[in-house]
Amino acid sequence: MIKNCILLLIACLTLFSCGVKTTSEIKDYKNLGFTPISPETVASFQNNKITKQVLVEPDNFVWGLSVVKWEGEYHAYYSRWNKKYEHKGWMTNCEIAHAVSDTPEGPFEFVNVVLKDQKTTGWDLNNSHNPYATIAEGKICLYYIANDIKSLLEKDKIEYPNEDWFNENRKPLRDSQRIGVAIADNPSGPFVRSEKVVVEPDNVKFKKIAVNPAVIHKDGKYLMIMKGDDLKHEKPFRIQLVGSSKNAEGPFDFIEKPVYAEAQTEDACMWFDQVMNKYYMVCHVMGKKDLALFSSENGFDWQQDERSVFMKKEFVLSDGTLWKPKRVERPFVLTNEKGQPTMIYVAVYDNNVNGNIAIPIEYNNIEK
Question: pTM score, two decimals?
Answer without folding.
Answer: 0.92
